[in-house]
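Work Package 3 (structural annotation) set out to generate three-dimensional models for the target panel prioritized at the project kickoff. During this period the team completed the workflow that converts sequence records into discrete structure tokens, so that structures can be stored uniformly alongside our sequence database. As a representative example, we reproduce one entry of 106 residues exactly as it appears in the project archive.
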Amino acid sequence: ACRQFLGGCCLRRGCQIFSFAGGFIYFFSIIVFYNLLLGLFNLIPIPPLDGSHVLFSFLPESFNQFKFFLHQYGFFILIFFWFAGGLNLVFDGVKLLTYFLFSVKF
């Protein structure tokens, strides 16, 4: 009877450790998820965001009017992009990437 009790106690402790490790991995997967979400959001090529600098570095000088237009109306384009559901594409991509990295669904 004593062995069964000790074995069950060790088994319970093992489950607690596994549960703690699973929670730890889930916590860090949430941190990675939000970092990826903010990073990919920042790479959208609309001028208030950093992705526009990447886009503008590849555009030739003949696109200066387009650059000026994006600088002038970029914030409104970003708001429209947000309300039109364009951020769902970024969100879904980050969810998929996080699932491949950690096998955690959000």
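Residues 2-42 form the longest helix (41 residues).
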